[in-house]
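Appendix B: a complete holo record

For completeness, this appendix reproduces one full record from the ligand-bound portion of the collection. The bound molecule is zinc ion. The inputs are the chain sequence and the ligand SMILES; the output is the full three-dimensional arrangement of the complex, encoded as structure tokens. No fields have been trimmed.
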Amino acid sequence: MDSGFVDCHCHISAQEFEEDLEDVIQRTKEAGVKTLVAVTEGVGEFERVLQLQERYPDLVAPCFGVHPLQVDGGLEQRSVKPQIGLDFTPWCAPSQQDKDDQLDVFIKQLSIAQELQLPVNVHSRSAAKVTISTMRKQGISRALLHNFAGKPSVALEGVKAGYLFSFPPAVCRNQQRDKLIQQIPLEHICLETDSPALGLEKHVRNEPRNITLCCQHIADLKGVSPETVKVVTAENAYRLFPKVSRR
Ligand SMILES: [Zn+2]
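The structure of the chain with zinc ion bound, as generated:
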């Protein structure tokens, strides 16, 4: 059954889309995208995402989170001093204390998800190993690791735990993640765009319609048709997000 594409991680509520949102949505639909999992980075965006869901009920599925380090917004909007996940890149977590603070908040967010019986859509950067081991320790069974860039051996630990991995069009820029994608079974892969970021070209606004690019790239790496990647990744996404009804 062709259920179309599911963009498992995009920021359709971003300012970058405000001006020509109608056109962006039109192109999204024309590309065959059936669901946009609309991820937030901060509390300030929750309302906007709900409005978008009301405006496009067949397309937009809200996914609320608070980024590990929010640079803007007031203190009350921040998860750690300044999305759910861990960002251990040196400029985000210069000290061990910063990492520990992120970890505390991450564990709290994981327990909220468990309480509400929701899957988690996780950002991890330079923190793949800790992210996966923390989720396993906390007994998380349903998780998507978005824009994953850890080692294949670490990813396979996540596969064992039943986790899914999504990749944006930026993976087509070079061959850095080809081996990683080849090693993760297709049954554990989802598609995402992370638009407006992580497109094919740096500094050019990315759109959900570009999901076809990562689909083609993954198909080439796996030696299967893009149609297969589309169908299997959509099945994976609907299994992970059962509250999102098939379109
Ligand atoms: Zn994102």
